[in-house]
Amino acid sequence: GGGGGGGEERGKGEGAEEEEEEEEEEEEEEEEEEEEEEEEEEDDHKQQQEEQSEVHR
């Protein structure tokens, strides 16, 4: 959340803050999922390299 919105946010009071926290948690979860996917892709790449090197033997 980039600090803007002023009056409207204050009008909602604490409820708005709770909503913002939930959104931040969701974003963190998405980032973790992306990192896991990248690790899986790296594992696939290693397996492919091993298979290729076995073929060359």
From TrEMBL:
Biased composition annotated in UniProt, kind: Acidic residues: 16-43
Record protein name field: Uncharacterized protein
UniProt biased composition (Basic and acidic residues): 44-57
Disordered, as annotated region: 1-57
